[in-house]
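ok so i was messing around last nite and threw this chain in just to see what happens. nothing serious, just curious
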Amino acid sequence: MLEAVLAGATTPEIEGVEVVRRPALTVSPADVLAADGYVLGTPANLGYMSGALKHAFDVCYYPCLDTTRGRPFGLYVHGNEGTEGAERGVTAITTGLGWVKATDYVVVSGRPTKADLEACWNLGATVAAQLTP
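result:
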């Protein structure tokens, strides 16, 4: 799913966008402040976002609260069941940050299908397209 998101975000038709990948446990406020938009990915663990993504939000929330308002973001979630808690948690945090949902979340239960991977590609491309000058 990550590879499909990256392929969409780096499609040659979208120019002027630099994609920077950061594992959630290494994300710093400086990384978030330097970005113009965000694609978040997480497994749904025990009905919630991963601890790593929650940690990234915990570290970056207040330092980025006012400065990143209005920036677009996208989310993809993968779980075997019960992804609603992960979606709800990310929505609550990004709403507090004032980020703008660029497109519908991509939510996949079980093994990703070709249609799921296409949705991930579209997610990456949609967020990237909103960043072009």
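not much to say yet. The longest strand covers residues 72-79.
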